[in-house]
Design a protein that fits this description.
elongated; two-stranded antiparallel sheet; mainly alpha
């Protein structure tokens, strides 16, 4: 009977893990979809368009986001089968001996569902991460090009201005430029940017929004009956970054949770 109780506790733990994984996948999908609406502004797979920047195709974000959300149907079915397995063991343990209980194995359907869920979550997470990194690389390349042009201006045209004097009112420069000293004691400036700094940059957010407005202002202005030119770049950039990082965190945590659940159920299959 003690072994039966141990199996029941193990399955109860598995059910809890499954619901945690379900919540994390829902978090990953919901936050990704939320950042796209209502103007179809998908920050993933953004690209340079001439001297400006353009949002990625909205269907990329929709496919990944709703993929996570719709995957919850499979997750709920998986949790239900596990709960039914635990209920069967609990009821049978009252009427049968342990030798009979050993014939009650974890079904192959439950194992297959775990593998399917893990595969879907992992694939969606990879696409989400690649899209995030792709946008980050495009933003960094754009910023690097702009700042290199500023740094490499003809000294004869600057009338003796130092770099500090020239960029004293240039927040973009000081956001990304790092001052270092070379072996001869001269100051040099290296351009280095983190993805978070790029995604929260109001100048990048403004470029993305303005380019988007030029393309789709007629459609969204007519559909929503409002002026979509009104825009708080700093607030929108921070909001987008928070939602994207929440989606990434939920996706990767969900992947590891479902990986753990899949390994755990293989162990339990050998145990029961």
């Amino acid at each position: 009977m003690e072994n039966t109780e141990g199996i029941e506790r193990s399955l109860l733990f598995l059910i809890i893990v499954q619901f945690v994984g379900t919540f994390l996948c829902l978090l990953a999908g919901a936050t990704l979809v939320a950042h796209v609406d209502p103007l179809s502004e998908c920050i993933l797979y953004a690209w340079q368009e001439g001297e400006s920047l353009s949002y990625g195709e909205p269907h990329y974000c929709d496919i990944i986001g709703y993929g996570f959300i719709l995957n919850n149907v499979v997750l709920i079915v998986t949790a239900y089968l596990t709960l039914r397995q635990r209920s069967n063991i609990s009821s049978l343990s009252k009427h049968f001996s342990m030798r009979n209980l050993k014939s009650l194995k974890i079904g192959i359907r439950l194992i297959i569902l775990h593998l399917i869920v893990l595969s879907i979550v992992f694939i969606l997470t990879i696409f989400l991460t690649v899209g995030y990194k792709s946008s980050c690389d495009q933003f960094e390349e754009h910023i690097t090009q702009l700042l290199n042009v500023k740094l490499n201006q003809d000294p004869d045209l600057l009338r003796g201005e130092t770099i500090e004097e020239r960029f004293v009112e240039d927040p973009m420069f000081w956001r990304y430029a790092q001052q270092v000293t070379n072996a001869f004691g001269s100051n040099m400036y290296n351009i280095k940017a983190s993805c978070r700094a790029l995604f929260t940059d109001p100048d990048i957010a403004t470029l993305l929004h303005d380019n988007h407005v030029k393309k789709y202002s007629g459609y969204f202005g007519w559909w929503y009956h409002q002026d979509i030119y009104s825009y708080d770049a700093q607030a929108q950039a921070v909001r987008t970054n928070v939602l994207i990082e929440a989606s990434l965190a939920g996706a990767w945590m969900g992947t590891f949770v479902w990986l753990g659940a899949t390994i755990f159920i293989f162990v339990q299959k050998k145990r029961i």
